[in-house]
Amino acid sequence: MNDEFFQALASPYRREIIRLLKQKSLNAGEIASHFTISKPSVSRHLEVLRQAELVTVERRGTQLIYSVNLTVLQEMGMELIELVSTKERVSNEP
User: Fold this and answer.
1) 39-51 vs 12-23: helix axis angle to the nearest 10?
2) DSSP 3
């Protein structure tokens, strides 16, 4: 499993950013307006999410637009389900 994925999700700020981006794509300023932390802190959280491939970035003119990468979230969710299912099968053996 991808350690960057879990490290990225360890922060409640980053989880909230993902929730926001599930609703619609936003630029960094729009994302920052939902938080009381500084804009540089929001930018750092966005970079961690980008490195973990949980968000994608698209340039539109002078703005960077962030979107959630649902493919990665779904793939990791499936890996978690598989991991739990495998463990259950092993632990249920006599």
Assistant:
1) 80
2) H
Give the per-residue pLDDT at 93. Answer: 55
Residue ranges of the chain with per-residue pLDDT less than 70: 1, 86-94
* Residues 52, 7 contacting (CB under 8 angstroms): yes
Distance separating alpha carbons of residues 24 and 46, to the nearest angstrom = 15
What are the phi and psi torsion angles at 93 (to 5°)? Answer: -75, 145
Q: Is there a contact between 31 and 20 (Cβ–Cβ < 8 Å)?
A: yes
Calpha distance 31→62 (Å, rounded): 16
The pTM is what? 0.81
CB distance 7 to 56 below 8 Å: no
Kindly report the CATH number that applies to the domain delimited by 3-69.
1.10.10.10
CB 7 within 8 A of CB 85: no
